[in-house]
Every structure is written in C-alpha cells, then in structure tokens.
C-alpha cells in the first residue's frame, strides 16, 4: 500500500510499504480521510519533535524515522482481530491516536492517561499513520461513529476532541465570555465547542479568509482583526463593566497573541494554552500575579472522544464548514503542507484521501 513517510525535517516521501497485520485485539481500518494537523506542519518545518529521529527509537513503539505520519483519521473497518467482538467489518470509525504502555489505566474514570510516561501519538511516534491506505489499531483507540456523519467530516473529530478537552480544562460554563486567539482549525473547533456550551466567543485572527470562516461557520459571536483593531479595547467593550474575558484560549503559538490574552482577560481569568510551541515563549509575570491569572496547559484529550462525537451526532457542532481542501497523497507537500505553511490565509483544514478515492 502507499503511505506518506517522514524521514527528517523537510523530507517526507510517498512510498510503497507492506499492509499492516490485524492481530489479536486489533482493528484494521481502510483510511478514508486524514487531516493535516498543525503538529504535522511543525514536524515538517521545524522537527522532529514528537517523531523519534532515526536511530533513537520511541520507547513504546520501538520505532524511529522513517515513520508513517497522520493522526487525524476516519475510515471503515475491513478486518477485526481475535478478541474483538464489539466492532464489525463495515463500521465507520475514528481513531484516538495514542501510543501508551500496556499497563496504563485508560478506563472511563482515568483523567491522566494522556500524561503518562513516554506518551506519543500514532502517526507521529510510530504504529502506522492515517496518511496510508490502511492502518491497524488497538481496539481501545477505535471509536465507532454513526454512518450519518460523512467520513470527511469525521476526520475532524480528533481535532474537535482537542478543542473539547481545552474547554473542559478551562472550566468555562454557559454565559461566560471567551477570547480565542487564532482561527486555525484548533481555534475554530474550540470556538465550536464553546458555542455548543452557550459560551460567548470573541475570535482574534489576522487572516481575512479565516475570519470569514469563523463567521460562516457560526462559531464567532464577535470577530476582531488584530492588525487593524485594538483587541483588548474591543474585548472590554464587549464585556460587562469592561472587566474583560472570563477565559482565553491561545491557539497560535505566537507571542503577541499570548500577550494580548493577559491584557484582555479579567482579573482571576483563566488562560488556556492550546497550541504546541516549538520555541520558548515568555510570560510577563507581574501581570500573572497582579491579575491572579490562572494559566493552564492542555494537551490533546483524555476520554473526550465520546463527548466530541456526541456533539456532532446530536447536531450541536457542524464540521462541514471547516474543510477547505481535499487532496490525494501525491499532492501532500505542494497542495497540503506548503499551502498551510506559506499560504495559510487561503485554507483552514486540508484533508488527504490516501487511496485517492475521495478526491
């Protein structure tokens, strides 16, 4: 089968590799669609980060570059291994792409398996990836979805789960006001979760296309252009007594956006850093102290996929508006990575059909 393989920074190759075996406790999936994630872009332009460099195997998967990439995937089950009796051939599924030690508690009551030692992700740390025609995944990480959800939209459930977990981490409740810096896929999907929960959203985004996408998708109550407007002043205008936003979501990994959140949040506000920073950032500690800002990190998800899937199945989140491109594997670099790195004002979420059938 064909797959996209990461060798090193700037070096991704489309190759023929052996189809995966579907062993005991495993589920074989024909990948329908795989999204290109911001993390993938960081790996391509600045990595390796999560991807284990050649000669330095990941402790759990025992793999190192080259590895098959892609972790935002949807597909159809084509085989199930022994000991799998609750998923059937033909089921539509998405993958929660974790690589964890077998002794980690991943049960429904766990709230920290995503923070366990040597954690990594399928499609980054090894174990196959969604930018291949097929993948074999442990049953624990396979989530059945309704066949009423189109498979291209289903590929966005993984990043939607990132947004869901970020909102959970914030503690924000209905009636709160959230400032979201960045209207890329994660910013927009975090906003979608906020809207589904009755949280008012203010989105700051320099790209006119992405600002329009936030409006068209109905996830931004107020849209601000930070290149021409004073974001902090606008937030104060929109909040009671000019106190500022209750919660902020940093979805850019850009220092000015982080600085803006400190100024735009109310005293005792919560600042959640969602983006992956491949470089050091700085915090003005006096603002953190004098405003008693609660600054929190958030990584991926932990038992959040079922709730994220329910938001889509119940019609509370519409994923269709966020898809701006569909390509095949052969165009992964020129129409995918290069577009999102160098022309990101023209696209939000680009999906890849590994087999080419969906293009």
TrEMBL record:
Residues 10-352 form the Enoyl reductase (ER) domain. Its EC number is 1.1.1.14. Belongs to the zinc-containing alcohol dehydrogenase family. Pfam families: ADH_N (PF08240), ADH_zinc_N (PF00107). This is Sorbitol dehydrogenase. It is an enzyme of class 1 (oxidoreductase). InterPro entries: ADH-like_C (IPR013149), ADH-like_N (IPR013154), ADH_Zn_CS (IPR002328), ER (IPR020843), GroES-like_sf (IPR011032), NAD(P)-bd_dom_sf (IPR036291). Its cofactor is Zn(2+). GO terms for molecular function: L-iditol 2-dehydrogenase (NAD+) activity; zinc ion binding. Keywords: Metal-binding, Oxidoreductase, Zinc.
């Amino acid at each position: 089968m064909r797959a996209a393989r990461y060798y090193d920074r700037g070096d991704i190759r489309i190759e023929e590799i052996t189809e995966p075996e579907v062993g005991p406790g495993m589920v074989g999936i024909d990948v329908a669609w795989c999204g290109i994630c911001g993390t993938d872009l960081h790996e391509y332009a600045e990595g390796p980060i999560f991807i284990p460099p050649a000669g330095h195997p990941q402790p759990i998967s025992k793999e190192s570059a080259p590895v098959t990439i892609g972790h935002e995937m949807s597909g159809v089950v084509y085989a199930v291994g022994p000991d799998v009796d609750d998923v059937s051939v033909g089921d539509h599924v998405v993958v929660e792409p974790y690589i964890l030690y077998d002794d980690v508690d991943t049960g429904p009551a766990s709230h920290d398996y995503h923070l366990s030692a040597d954690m990594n992700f399928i499609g980054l740390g090894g174990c196959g990836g969604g930018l291949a025609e097929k993948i074999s995944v442990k049953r624990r990480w396979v989530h059945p979805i309704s066949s009423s959800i189109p498979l291209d939209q289903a590929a966005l459930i993984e990043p939607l789960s990132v947004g869901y977990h970020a909102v959970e981490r914030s503690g924000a409740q209905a009636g709160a006001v959230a400032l979201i810096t960045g209207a890329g896929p994660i910013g927009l999907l975090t906003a979608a979760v906020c809207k589904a929960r009755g949280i008012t959203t203010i989105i700051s985004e320099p790209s006119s296309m992405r600002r329009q996408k936030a409006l068209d998708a109905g996830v931004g109550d107020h849209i601000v252009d930070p290149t021409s407007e004073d974001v902090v002043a606008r937030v104060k205008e929109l909040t009671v007594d000019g106190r500022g936003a209750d919660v902020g979501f940093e979805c850019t990994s850009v220092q000015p956006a982080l600085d803006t959140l400190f100024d735009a949040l109310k005293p005792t506000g919560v600042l959640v850093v969602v983006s992956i920073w491949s470089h050091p950032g700085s915090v003005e500690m006096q603002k953190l102290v004098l405003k008693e800002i609660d600054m929190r990190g958030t990584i991926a998800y932990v038992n959040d996929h079922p709730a994220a899937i329910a938001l889509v199945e119940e019609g509370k989140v519409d994923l269709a508006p966020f898809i701006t491109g569909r390509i095949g594997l052969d165009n992964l670099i020129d129409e995918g990575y290069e577009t999102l790195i160098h022309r990101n004002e023209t696209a939000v979420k680009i999906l890849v059909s590994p087999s080419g059938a969906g293009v």
